Amino acid sequence: MPKKGLAFPKPSSGATVRRAKRASKAKRQAEERLVVVERSHGQCEVWELGVRCGFPASEVHHLLGGIGRRNVGESALAKNLVAICQEHHVDVHAHRGVLRALDEEFPAGRVLFVRLGG
What we know:
Blueprint: H1 14-40, E1 46-48, E2 51-52, E3 59-62, E4 81-84, H2 86-93, E5 97-101, E6 111-115
């Protein structure tokens, strides 16, 4: 932020700009995650074998993956985040199963966990 009262104000340092960007991103991320936790009432939103898990959700998982950075753009929106219990989160990252969104418009609306064979 330029200094006031100077004819040629000194621009903000790169570190100050990066710090402000990081803080802004963290605030947006916290707001989106709060929406997810409120929507799920603190319970796992994953469905498996026709039943909602319902265990306490300890993680927020991104439904959009692929190339790029996490928590940027569409992947950071609450509609693309799902509250998930520790067991399902570990299974997804260990490739023992995959999450399938059943609604393209609102991916987190109903998320199915499909166990992989083995």
